[in-house]
Amino acid sequence: MRQLVGLQAQEPQSWYTTLWSRLPKFDAAAVGRLLEQRRLVRLTLMRGTVHLATADDAPVLRRFVQPAIDRYVRGAYARRLGGLDLGELEAEVRRLTAEPRPMSELVAALAERWPSAERSQLSIAAKVVVPLVQVPPRAVWRRPGAVRLTPLERWLGKRIPDAVDAAALVRRYLAAFGPASVADAQAWSGLTRLRELFDRLRPQLLIFRDSTGRELFDLPDAPRPDPDTPAPPRFLADYDNVLLSHADRTRFAGEVEPRALTYVDGPYPSALLVDGRYVGQWYLDRARNRGTLTIKVGRPLATDEEAAVRGEADALVRFLASDVESPTIDVRAAP
Predict the structure, then answer these.
(1) Based on the domain organization, do 15 and 121 belong to the same domain?
(2) Residue 257 C-alpha from the chain's centroid
(3) Which of 130, 161, 190, 253 would be 47's cystine partner, CB 3.0–4.6 Å?
């Protein structure tokens, strides 16, 4: 969690695959217990989306991205909120969530107070004006749980700092995702005008240029493997950090159309990388004691590639569907 500077965790369960794909001997149940122990929390952070962060990082990251979050609610959402006073909304949300409260109850109470506002926008605005944590059992491994919310400060007993070291956080971003451009860092964080910050950091960074001449920044001691270093197949989760932490995704996706990184027929798909490059999508269909992992590839796989993909797919199915006796792995071509 620290290395990735917060883990993208839109869905309550799929982010476990994000960790499984990166860590050997991964224990999902142990990670779920960290949520129950309040050592990890899920809340709105970068780009106004739900992330998982450590208890130490969460208050710092929320302060760091708060300007972007404020911009969302004061811009596109403001018109749909019926002109309500955001200060009053914050006070009411804090009052209503002093103890963990289901999202449905929170929105109903807010709609009663502000009937002219759209309910969907009240739901978004509540999580913007107050840093609300989704409390367990929501997102605990294989545990059902409705969304119940309470302020981050109450849940952790920590206050959100008045200011943070933005340069240190940008350096952490580069440690996870560099070499990266200014636009990449802005796409990751949702913040704007980071050029000045990168210029101040310039003496501490290595600077490269890509094939189009864009500057890419990295830490001097960051690993830079030889281009021929093998990269085994990796099944990424939906909303995986690598998909959402760069403005320029051609480095791993080539000239794939943007829509190919989002929807296909069936459940919301996830990406498959072969040799570090995007080759297609996958999704798991579950039906009682049956399970089918469908992989749609956009180019033919070499014999050794397909064998490696099937081996990794078998391990993934055993992780996600351990109760299925004879899961099916279906590899098919798709444009």
Answers:
(1) yes
(2) 21
(3) 190
Question: pLDDT for 173-214, tens place per residue?
Answer: 999 999 999 999 999 999 999 999 999 999 999 999 998 899
Spatial CB neighbours of 97, under 8 Å, sequence gap ≥ 6: 106, 130, 132, 149, 150, 151
**Of 156, 176, 194, which residue sits at a domain end?**
156
Angle (nearest 5°) at CA 96 between 91 and 99: 120
What whole-number distance in Å separates Cα of residue 54 and Cα of residue 204? 27
Question: What three-state secondary structure class fits 180?
Answer: strand
Last residue of a domain, one of 123, 156, 189: 156
In this structure, the chain runs to a length of 335
* Domain ranges, residue 137: 7-156
The whole-number average pLDDT for the span 12-33 is 95
Q: What is the pTM of this model?
A: 0.91
Instruction: Kindly state whether residue 191 falls inside one of the protein's structural domains.
Output: no
Question: pLDDT tens digits for 216-232?
Answer: 999 999 998 998 998 99
